[in-house]
Design brief:
Length: 114
């Protein structure tokens, strides 16, 4: 009698746990395949929360780094410590215009239009 009760109670629980494990594995497998092919529907899907999109070469490591303000002395030099411990004074122009540079890492990236 107790075997019949164990089967009626344990069977659905075992099936439920098996289904949850399979569903988790299958969802991860589908997400990996969509990411591999670059599926743009992932950006608008309600199943996934996209917090950030980064274009970088394969194998790149993205780290959050706080921007540092480099002090420029009045003679137009930046004092920078080199990896070997020496100090270098790097000349900089006081009124330089910053231009974006086209990366040659990928051939599918378009150069900036000016």
């Amino acid at each position: 009698m107790s075997l019949v009760i164990a089967i009626f109670v344990g069977g659905p629980i075992t099936i439920g746990i098996g289904w949850l494990v399979w569903n988790f594995w299958n969802s991860n497998r589908l997400l990996d395949s969509k990411l591999a092919i670059g599926d743009m529907e992932l950006l608008t899907s309600t199943n996934y929360k996209v917090s950030e999109v980064i274009r970088a070469p394969a194998g790149s490591k993205v780290e959050k780094v706080a921007a540092q303000q480099i002090p420029v002395n009045q003679q137009g030099y930046i004092r920078q410590q080199l990896p070997d411990g020496r100090i270098a004074l790097i000349p900089v122009g006081m009124h330089q215009q910053v231009k974006s540079v086209h990366s040659t890492m990928h051939t599918n990236q378009q150069p900036p239009s000016h």
